[in-house]
Structures are given as structure tokens and as C-alpha cells.
Design brief:
Strand order of the largest sheet: 2-1-3-4-5
Largest sheet: 5 strands, mixed
Shape: elongated
Order of helices and strands: HHEHEHEEHEHHHHHHHHH
Number of domains: 2
Distance between the termini: 26 Å
Radius of gyration: 28 Å
Length: 372
């Protein structure tokens, strides 16, 4: 009987193409826009730390470096050892520096930089920047171009090559955006799909269902399983999209298992929370307003919008009573390539407890409404 009701819920969702589109396309689109907008630490007020390797070692290259030193938007860190004498060595050195996040970018002045433009060598500059900071990369390129203009008014001989280096910072940004927004959209999806209880009650079909062998427990259980499967599918789609489009890093089967455990526990909790919201209100309009306030409040406490480490200590303490705190934190740890499986067990256990509590409260409130 439960599986029949779950299948009926899926058929109803499949026929409503608008709801189907909103359930899957909207979360992916919003996550993509957010990841593109905030992809990397944007710190325009801080100098852009760059590693400089001067292979030319000419008077012209020194004038370029001194011009950059006068620019407040960059902070130079030159290679004092001058160990590199060719481009492959320089590229390897600065790449490792950026990957280790000891610098946000690098400048390599190639051999021939100080040569006469008629020699067809001209101003050969290599810029390497971290992919986690696209805004800073633009600022660095502008600073180098301005410094070159100061060195020679005419820039016809300028050959500026810009490359991007992958860093762990970009992965952290994607992980943070995914763990926070996934919880938000699971909550909104569960709350919206739980309106069936109100509709069935208003159409008097809920009373008819209760006269059958289904019973209230099976009806709520089937709807919870439907919301659980819907949330799990939604989470799978967002994780795949983050992997294929934004380069979310994976280390092996254990990390996949961690993400599955926490994602299922999160989907189970959000499904039960949606049923609880539907049992608390009487109309669709009340459900929309109540769910909006509750979800935004819980998401703010849980760290979906602002990392919890940036919150006051009192707010962090209060946030421990919110299931979103455990969901966002659990997903963050599960997506971390260096986390062990046992690290996500506490969050998963707490989420399972929240799911059981919300289901019990939803069943009790629904039974009271039916009796009344």
C-alpha cells in the first residue's frame, strides 16, 4: 500500500511539468549563479600577493618590478634565490606556490623582455593566477598593464600570457556553496510538496483515504518516502552538476559513501520537517508564509548563507538546536576529501533523530486535526 501511494505521488509530480522543472532546474540554476558570483575569495581591500620570477634580469625588468612595487593593489614576493633560469622551472615553481596558497598569483618576466621591439621578442610576460580569485586576477592584469605603460608608453610590442592555476580554495568555495544551498532547496521542496495534506483535507479525500486500509501512518509514511526520494534525487543532481561543471574534487568510494549517508539523512529530515509544517497550518497561503519564515531562519542559523565561524559565539550555540546546522556541517565534512567516514556519523545520527521527532509530531498534529 505504501509503495502504491509513493508511486501515485511521483505520477502526480510527473504530470505537473512546472513543479518538476522547479524541483530540479531551479536549484541547479541558482547554485550555478551563486557559484559563479562568489567563486573564490574576493578581497579587493587586501593587496594581491604575487610571486615574481625575473628570468630576464635586465634594467627594463627591474623597472617593471619597481613600478609594481609602487602599486598598492599588489604585494610582491620576489624569488631571492634566482634558482630558475628557464621558463619550465619558473612555471613549476610559481604553480606550486599558488597551489599551496602562499600567493594568489605570479609574474614571470621572460628572457628578451628588455630587448628591442624590432627583434620580435618584445615584452613577454606570463601571469598565473588562482582560479579561486577571478576578480583579483583582473586587478593583477590591470596593474601589470599599467606598469608596462609606465615603462614604455607604446604597448604595441606587449605579449601578455595569462594562465589559471587550480587551487584547493576554489574547491572549498564550491563545497561551501553546495552544502549550504542544497539544504535550503531541500527544505523548500519538501515544504512545497507537503501541501498535499492541506489539499486532500480541503477536498475531503483525506477522510476517504482514512476509511481504507491505508491508515494515517501509511499515508504519512508514503508521503515521507516520496519526499525522501525526491530530495535524494535533487541532491544527486546538484552534486553531479557541481562535479561536472565546477570541478568538485573526489577521492574515492569512501567519500561518495560519506556524501550519500549525510545527503539521505538530510533529505529524511527535510521531508519530515515539510510534513510537520503542513500539519501546523490550515491553508496553502499559511503554508507558504510559515515555510518561508521558518526555512530562512533555520538556514541563517545553520550557516547556509554565512559560515558559522563568522557568527558570534552565542549565535553558534543557539544554532546547535537547528537541524540545518548539522545538515550543512555534515555535508561540508562529507565533501571534504580528507574527512573520514566516522567524522560524519554524529551529524547523520542527529539528523536521524530530528527526522523521527518531526515525523512523530506531524502524525500527532494530523491525527488531532482529523479528530477535531
Amino acid at each position: 500500500m505504501i509503495l502504491v501511494l509513493v508511486a501515485a505521488s511521483w505520477r502526480h509530480l510527473w504530470r505537473d511539468r512546472s513543479a518538476l522543472l522547479l524541483s530540479f532546474a531551479l536549484p541547479v540554476a541558482f547554485f550555478s549563479l551563486s557559484a559563479l558570483a562568489f567563486h573564490g575569495p574576493q578581497r579587493p581591500s587586501e593587496p594581491f600577493g604575487i610571486h615574481v620570477v625575473d628570468l630576464d634580469r635586465s634594467a627594463a625588468s627591474r623597472r617593471l618590478v619597481r613600478a609594481l612595487e609602487r602599486d598598492d593593489t599588489v604585494a610582491l614576493s620576489e624569488d631571492p634565490s634566482e634558482a630558475c633560469s628557464d621558463q619550465p622551472c619558473a612555471v613549476d615553481t610559481v604553480t606550486r606556490t599558488i597551489e599551496a596558497e602562499r600567493a594568489r598569483g605570479a609574474l614571470i618576466v621572460q628572457l628578451g623582455f628588455g630587448a628591442d621591439p624590432l627583434s620580435n621578442q618584445g615584452a613577454r610576460i606570463d601571469l598565473l593566477t588562482a582560479d579561486a580569485d577571478p576578480i583579483g586576477a583582473l586587478l593583477l592584469e590591470r596593474s601589470v598593464v599599467d606598469a608596462l605603460a609606465e615603462r614604455r608608453p607604446s604597448r604595441d610590442d606587449l605579449r601578455l600570457h595569462h594562465a589559471v592555476v587550480g587551487t584547493a580554495g576554489s574547491t572549498r568555495v564550491v563545497r561551501g556553496m553546495l552544502s549550504g544551498l542544497l539544504v535550503v532547496f531541500l527544505l523548500f521542496t519538501a515544504a512545497g510538496a507537503s501541501g498535499w495534506l492541506i489539499e486532500e483535507e480541503q477536498q475531503a479525500t483525506l477522510s476517504l483515504l482514512l476509511t481504507t486500509q491505508a491508515g494515517l501512518g501509511r499515508i504519512l509514511g508514503s508521503q515521507w518516502l516520496f519526499l525522501l526520494s525526491l530530495g535524494s534525487l535533487q541532491a544527486t543532481l546538484m552534486v553531479l552538476w557541481a562535479t561536472l561543471v565546477f570541478g568538485l574534487a573526489w577521492t574515492g568510494p569512501l567519500q561518495i559513501l560519506r556524501v550519500i549517508v549525510v545527503a539521505v539523512a538530510t533529505a529524511a529530515t527535510t521531508a519530515a520537517f515539510g510534513l510537520l509544517l503542513a500539519a501546523l497550518v490550515r491553508t496553502r497561503a499559511q503554508l507558504g508564509a510559515t515555510s518561508m519564515i521558518a526555512i530562512l531562519l533555520l538556514s541563517a542559523l545553520g550557516g547556509s548563507f554565512v559560515p558559522r565561524v563568522a557568527m558570534p559565539q552565542a549565535m553558534q550555540t543557539v544554532g546547535l538546536v537547528a537541524p540545518t546546522t548539522w545538515a550543512v556541517g555534515g555535508l561540508w565534512r562529507a565533501l571534504d576529501p580528507e574527512t573520514s567516514l566516522t567524522a560524519v556519523v554524529p551529524a547523520s545520527a542527529v539528523l536521524a533523530g530530528f527526522a523521527a521527532l518531526f515525523l512523530a509530531m506531524a502524525a500527532r498534529l494530523t491525527r488531532r486535526r482529523i479528530v477535531a
